[in-house]
Amino acid sequence: MSIALEIVQNLVSIRRFVSRNMMSYPNRDALRAAHDIYLNAMRPFVTNHTLEEINGEIDISDIARIITNNWFNSFKRWFENVDPYYEARSAAWQIVESRNRASHPPWDLDPEFTRAHLFLIARVLEKIDRADAKRSIETIRDQLFSDNIDKQQTEVEQIAVYKKRLTTISSQLAAVIAEKATAEKRLSDISNQLEDVEIEKTEMEKRLKTMLDQLKRENAAYKKRIETISDQLEAANAEKTKPEPHTALAQVEVRKQLKKKSSVSERYTTDTTEDERNEVAVKVAKLRINASGSKPLSWRRIREKLGLKNDQFHKVIRLSPGYRTAVIERIKSLKASEEGWEYSGKLEVLTGIELTESELEPNSITFQGTTFMLHSDEYYAEGDDITQSFWHYWHAQGPDGKEKMRQAGWSVERVDGDWEITISSEDFQAWIEHEVTELSKLFNSSRNQELSPQPVQPVYERTTLPTGREMEQPVLELLADEKEHRRLEFINLLTEHFSLTDDERSYLSKTGQAEKHLMNKGLIERTRTGYYRITTRGLQVLR
């Protein structure tokens, strides 16, 4: 009778639980119904198997206490473990905890907690052979979590959708990154093109200036020719007015002289100055005598390249003293170069003139590692430390000083990326003694010391552009982050740091003095066109 009554009570609990439809607090209601079934099943089991006397009704906490107190004497032989994690004593106290949480709820219980405890209660009831009570607990559990499969399926589908969307977004992000890299590369190419355009613009301006100067010289020559013709006409008119018996014959002779057509070479000689013809002679020498000593251009190709007629080229240029001087200087300079120069054929055939070996020996002076070649009583040197120092000396003179130096035969020019200086032979020794000696001592001492940034001289104390040593520290500080930096950033930094004028900034931009100095010392390296990065040695020097 008692077991039947318990079954009825269990069914009532299940019906009450199901009738609520789990709308308000399904987890708490499910645990309460399960606790009722558990209490109805465990109460007679504990009463029948305990050794102590029980008075009155017992609840869930009394069941846990009785099992614990009588474990070794009575209950241990009935069941050891309820599941792999709990034995009967700990399972009974876990059920007490779930009863307490379900009885004093500020909110609904966690689904995982509810599922675990329903499973635990079913296992305990299975151990005491109450299959009917266990099925009741399982009914409550299945009723509570019957929609889990549908939820899980829905979640799986949503996760699949999210994964697909994430893949799409990742592909789009990769495409955007690739487009960004392409845009950055294109921007870099455009920047390099702009720098090339600026260089071309500067070269075009220089060529236009050269053409303008040439036009001025040609205009002066035309004016001189007009004056000469005017003088001839005046002389002819004067001869015409003389009371001589053969006036008519004299006038006829004058007219013949005026109408006589001059030759091509005579007209070319009249239209050009000796300096202009010497310049052409130098070009002919360079085209005919190349540095490698290989087969030169033919006379015809050179004449066509310079746009000269046959008489202009051979009678006026090739046979002139200026051409002979240009050939001798050309061969001397090639012989004095590091590669040397040697021609296996006959020099008379190559140059078109007769030469002796004594005429071709290079006349030069070597000072502190720089070779100065003597050409037409002027010393000539190409880019080196001393040449660079001379540029600073030249720049420090100011406009008036430079003009005086030009009149004395000094000059500084930029040719094919290198500085070329020309110094008059009279002033060369004075410059060696007063300027180059001190600068050379500085260069020699700096080579024997550890590289280290030197203190930058204040702007108001400087009389020249900043030297390479002065530019080391600001540029290395700019590159201290070990990232790539554009060359334009160097120029902007140095212009602001040293308060450079527009001409000085233009000089730094064209010559690349800052990056060349730092690259020669191994402090920076070029990563790609127009971009630089500090080296390990540069970081050591900066620190």
Describe the structure.
The structure is a single chain. By secondary structure, this protein is an alpha+beta fold. Helix content is 68%, strand content 7%. It is built from 24 helices and 8 strands. It has a 5-stranded antiparallel beta sheet, sandwiched between helices. A hairpin with a 2-residue loop joins strand 7 and strand 8. Helix 1 runs parallel beside helix 7 (131-144). The longest helix has 94 residues, at 148-241. The two termini are 96 Å apart. Mean pLDDT is 76; it is low at 18-23 and 445-463.
Radius of gyration: 53 Å
Strand composition percent: 5-15%
Q: In which range does the helix fraction lie? A: 55-70%
Number of strands: 8
In round numbers, the mean pLDDT is: 76
Spans of 5+ residues with little confidence (pLDDT < 50)? 18-23, 445-463
**Biggest β-sheet description:** 5 strands, antiparallel
Alpha plus pi helix count: 24
Query: Structural class, judged by helices and strands?
Result: alpha+beta
**Terminal Cα separation, in Å?**
96 Å
